[in-house]
Amino acid sequence: MKDKTVNLKGGLGQLTIPIIAVALLVIFNLIRDPGFFSISITHNNYGNAVLAGNLISIINGASELAILAIGMTLVTAATKGQDISVGAAAAIAGSVFVKVLKSGAEISGGTVILAFICSCCVAMIFGAFNGTLVAVFNIQPMIATLILYTCGRSIAYWINGGATPTVTSPIINAIGSFAPGIPIPMPVIIVIIVTILFKLLFHFTSLELLTQSVGINQSAARLNGINTTFIKLLSFILLGVCVSVAGIIGVSRLGLINHETLLLDVEMDAILAVAIGGNSLGGGKFKISGSIIGAYVIQMLTITLYAMKVSSTDVKAYKAIVIVLLVVIGSPVVKERFAKLMKQRKKLAKGGEAA
Amino acid sequence: MQEECLLKLRGIGKRFPGVRALHNVDFTLRKGEIHALMGENGAGKSTLIKILTGVYQMDEGSVEVDGKAVNIHSPQDAQNNGISTVYQEITLCPNLTVAENMFIGREGGAWVNQKEYRKRADEQLQNLNIPARSSQQLGSCSLAVQQMVAIARAVDMQCKVLILDEPTSSLDDKEVNMLFSLMRDLKKKGVGIIFVTHFLEQVYEVSDRITVLRNGQLVGEYPTSELPQVQLVAKMMGKTLDELSALEDTGSRVEATGEVFYKAEGLSSEETNPFDFSIRKGEVNGLTGLLGSGRSESVRAIFGADKVTAGKVNINGKEAKISKPIDAMKNGIGYLAEDRKRDGIIADLSVRENIILALQVMNGFFKPISRSESEAFADEYIKALKIKTASTETPVGSLSGGNQQKVILARWLLTHPDYLILDEPTRGIDVGTKLEIQKLVLQLAKDGVSVTFISSEVEEMLRTCSRLIVMRDRHIVGELKGNDLNQAQVMKTIAGGEAE
How far apart are CA A343 and CA B187, in angstroms? Predict the structure, then answer.
């Protein structure tokens, strides 16, 4: 019983900051505009009844980021570093996806699945490339992934011969927005599926324990028989799967692949989501749920700023201010001070009771 | 009170969540005195030192330096008040020169006059008889000299109180003597030294006074000459020495006669010369020799921790190939590494996760141990080894050294090994836990487990091992058993022909 409470506290400890951030953003928006989060049912071009509203567009818009943040969390935990090539790799994955779709005469369910598998495999291979540099050659993750970051969008450019082909298909449209009969945006459902798959992965394998061990103390992990190279490599390959899924969502939203702009600069947001989620960027212990909430915090912030009619050029600056606050509040120094303050107050309160 | 009081602590109290680490502790250090601070793990020695050095803040009590009340809120405060510490792990920078290490982070700021500093460093080194040159890279000095450089740094900062926290735990006898003569020199210069160690003989060799702590409370302060060693141990443990003598009697001096479990011929790794080695079922053997004699490297080769380059290994009569730790584990071998912090614990993970780790790895990637199962395992071993922890979910890094070591022991016991290699399992842990570990080794042997035991304390090995393999300069130079198992013979063999 005692153990459980300790646990709960510990778990909440990491999630305190992201949850408070969400709560503050919600309250702020409700004061600013009580109807901000109202959800309505509208009919889209295809005649489906679908949910609409700011809340839906926040959750929907953060989908790619949330999925990337999941993979980024694993890489961070195992390698004590981050992959900055996820945006470029997603452009490659998206290009492969479109290339395969375009290869047949018409786009059927089968072609989409085939295209997904191809895209996923390519992304995993690039993940394995990054992973090999990091795990086998001991190159710092940021330096190792800088290579793909630099050349990834060029590779994506070659795949479709420099064009930005469009794909028109009800299936692709459904992946990017709504499937017939389901009022919830498809990308949101995909996030839920990916999250569940990762939770299952953690449940049916010892990946979580092994990854954390490698991230905290590689030498000890090795002497306990853990194949540290494999664990690091695996984290990059799993991130590859996330990259491919995120890339496909991005492509499906627009119905075209633009290798120059698809998920541009998303890597920094993904790393930020991991950090806001209370995960140490120095590796080790991690919580996937923290990173996912982190992704929603970032998106909510963006949408809030847009709703306040802040111009898109200014948004980044305002975002930065809020993020500085979040990161400072979440820093160990502030946490320690806060804990001390609470302790003193408790003492005072106790003293008062005694008197 | 003819001697001058240098440092006076009164009524020191400190609480951590769920534990009262110190309660109403007094401590007095006089000028020109070597004062040993003794206690088992968890007695509060480290906490007291960390309060003195500003790492922790005390909850109650007062500190006086030279008769003036002071507040120590940070390591900087401690230094300004003339309190310097040399820790067990060297905290200097091995890639800088000796001089740079002596002056780094002190006056001068960005403009460092290298020449002047080197000159001053050389003077100080000469003054203290430290065999190092100021221009030498610190990393190229032996551990002992590195430690002495740390002390020289403290002396150069005009320290009045010098705290030495387990300074001798990785030194050999010669180096210990060097350190002791330096300590005596400083004592003559009026420096007060607080000496924390687990080696009782050293306390008697060098200290003037002993303060004993137990369970966060003061047991008493005694002049060293008036406190026999037996009584000191009794005070530290809070019980009589019956247990100790009981253990002496049960020593498994009888040579094991079971089948050979592990046998290596011409085994070598990148760190060792080729060597032969074997152990029987239910046998406890030991590898002894000075630091750097290759004893740790040899067992690392057996476990596949370093890259194995040659050799034939037979386990249970069948040929086996061990090239990485998991191979050894699958063959029933467990290995408790010498460096607990670096190669043992996963500090941020819980006691539970640390205990199940090796078993989990052996079970494989696709067979995770369920939460309830792992909790049951953890509870079982916390009870069996008397691990002091708030709960199964406490991060192992927050436990005391002895309890961390027990967690790692639990980790290997849980894999039910046929052969357990223990490299310095008792280093840096208290007397009580040492005895428990020795008992455990003997019990394991009784149950048919083979154990290789390495310890820098020869007495400990004599108590547990029925066969001692002596190493010198990375070669096996002798094997002792039966009547040859005594301290004199061991020393003679370690020293080689020169001892004759």
Answer: 42
Q: Does A227 touch chain B (CB under 8 A)?
A: yes
Instruction: Give whole-number Cα distances, B204 to B174, B224, B226, B373, B450, in Å.
Output: 17, 7, 11, 48, 36
Same domain, B56 and B27: yes
**B424, part of any domain:** yes
Q: Which of B337, B360, B411 sits opposite A206 (nearest CB)?
A: B360
CATH number at A71 reads 1.10.3470
Return d(Cα A55, Cα A51) in angstroms, integer. 10
Report how many domains make up chain B. 2
ipTM for the predicted complex: 0.87
Any CB–CB contact under 8 A between A221 and chain B?
A: yes
Q: What are the angstrom distances between the C-alpha of B308 and each of B267, B287, B318?
A: 8, 19, 19
Give the minimum alpha-carbon distance from B304 to chain A in angstroms, rounded to a whole number. 9
Domain at B475, CATH number? 3.40.50.300
Q: Tell me, yes or no, whether A232 and A342 share the same domain.
A: no
A159 and A96 Cβ atoms separated by less than 8 Å: yes
Neighbours of B208 (CB within 10 A): 17
Four-point Cα dihedral B436, B437, B439, B442, nearest 10: 170
Tens-level pLDDT at each residue, chain B (500 residues) = 446 889 999 999 998 766 788 999 999 999 999 999 998 766 888 889 999 988 899 999 999 999 899 999 988 888 889 999 887 666 788 888 888 888 877 765 556 677 888 888 899 898 888 888 888 888 888 878 888 888 888 888 888 999 998 888 777 778 888 889 999 999 998 999 999 987 777 889 999 999 999 888 999 999 999 988 777 877 877 755 555 555 554 444 667 788 999 999 999 998 889 999 999 999 999 998 776 678 899 999 999 999 999 999 999 999 999 999 999 999 999 999 988 988 999 999 999 999 999 999 999 999 999 999 999 999 999 999 999 899 999 999 988 888 999 999 999 999 999 999 999 998 777 778 888 898 999 999 999 999 999 987 777 888 889 999 998 878 898 999 888 888 778 877 877 644 33
Is the minimum CB–CB distance between B390 and chain A shorter than 8 Å? yes
**Domain residues for A61?**
2-309
CA angle B324, B330, B334 (to 5 degrees): 75
Distance (Å, whole) CA B329 – CA A122: 36
Q: Does B393 contact A7 at a Cβ distance shorter than 8 Å?
A: yes
User: Per this entry, what is the length of chain A?
Assistant: 355
Q: Domain boundary residue among B180, B212, B236?
A: B236
Is B326 within the bounds of a domain? yes
Closest CA to A59 of A20, A22, A29: A22
